[in-house]
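Case study.
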Amino acid sequence: MNGLVLRLRSAPAFRLDLSPLTPERLAGQSAEAVARLELAYGRRKVPVGEWFEVRGAAGPRLLIEGDCTRVDRIGAGLSDGEIRVEGSVGAYLGIGMRGGRIEVSGNTDAYTACGLAGGVVKVAGDAGDYLGGALPGEHRGMRGGAVIVGGRLGDRAGDHMRRGLILAEGECGQYCGSRMQGGTIATLGRCGARPGYAMRRGTLLFAGPPPAPGPTFNDGGELSLGFLVLLARAWKDLPSRFASLSRSSVRVQRWVGDLAFGGEGELIHWPG
Amino acid sequence: MIVNGVAIDDTFAEAFAMRGTRLIITAHNLAWARQAAVSMTGFATSVIGCGCEAGIERELATGETPDGRPGVSVLLFATSSSELTKQLERRVGMCVLTSPTSAVFSGIATGRPLPLGKTLRYFGDGHQISKVIGGKRYWRVPVMDGEFIAEDTTAMSEAIGGGNFLILATGTSQALSAAESAIQAMRRMTGAIMPFPGGVVRSGSKVGSKYKTLIASTNHAFCPTLRASVESELGPEVECVLEIVIDGLTEEAVRDSMQAGLRAVCALGASGGIRRLSAGNYGGKLGKFHFPLRPLLP
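After joint prediction, the assembly is written out as follows.
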């Protein structure tokens, strides 16, 4: 991979905030200049060079290597360029991202793609709780872009989600799509308890095992939904198992809710 | 210039700038897609009295439509963007939304957006669902046979209306056969439509009238029954004149369509009863686009 490479020297003892290091912010800087930039580390400020070996030249791509499970806010506010992480990362990956692309080969912690507005986040492993959600106290979760998770989704994925797409190839945790107001979450795996809790709008699509909707969801029976063809076609170019999703018809089972909150969101089981 | 015994007038078709758009209408099968399109493009022969000119461009195979169902593409033209917007909303709302199993999509990628599902969604009375898929917004409107899917907007294109040519024949049968052959050839082209009934118009018009309230009246110079009354364009051998009018999204589309039609007519030749080919114009003073006939042949 061309561009700047950051190799973590050792796992930090405290949380390290990597939000200043995005390809667009580093544009035109040498490896030495990048090594001198300051990062928040616990209560202190430390230079990048204290924790990372920096090599290469800043460009549209940034590669981060090492166990970054205590490194937070990677790719925060990214609007262009590409960040690739070889390993697992901490919380708030891609928070407030507006464009570009982030790929993580390992797992991510809580609030991945929180408030995402555009771009693509791909996590090969598992994702923590509140993926694509809103920060505590905020009411705007993900509102654009796409998140693809190869492993398991944590609890409350898509909390307060408004627009955008979350594709989970593995299982979903509890309260998936809670307080959702729009957008689409699709999963190939099993789903935890109370999917769509307090959702008002939006779509939870189960292309694997059927969900177990809570008592405040009404069963709308079996239907044919033509828009699923549009969805599946749009997934063809995504780096995901969803790209090869094959269904012989658009016949689905549909539940509507969460009626306890006057919601008209939908849970859809699209069997193979 | 004479081609296969047919005299080609040294004249040109005069066409005007219009605003146009393309829609893709799909349905459970081709018959119902066509039905929706036929309804939508009905009473759309001329902007003089219909508000717009519209027609079916071509049929689409399942691999060519956004939702993988059979469909047709439709072209719609009007003289202004506001009129096009109005006609689009009315016609799609009354004829496509109402047609069983139909869905409607934009057939043009770029250009000023025109509301499509954006306004029709209100039919859902609050139960409509918006879905942004692949960067485009679609509306799912609940209807009695399931859901009506409509793309949020289509796009407006600069367009050309009023390309034309006149077939001068010895009789009605000969003129009709020639016009039918021309239309058959022209329908193989894309980007253009022939908005009149069956693609053919027998009441060619001129601008203005002796009656002040009329903006157009019969093209007297080409009426066989007026040969003895006015300064006629027709000799004694011509008893029937039919016109084909073409609207297209581009100048090339109109030109290609005209060329296909003219060649098909010339192929019938004098032995088919075709005497002359001519075109309607206003001396070049009104229309921005001129299509001389002779360079399009043989």
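Observations recorded in class. The interface with chain B takes residues 144, 163-164, 182-184, 201, 203, 223-227, 229-231, 233-234, 264, 266 of chain A (CB under 8 Å). Chain A has a mean pLDDT of 94. We will return to this complex in the next lecture.
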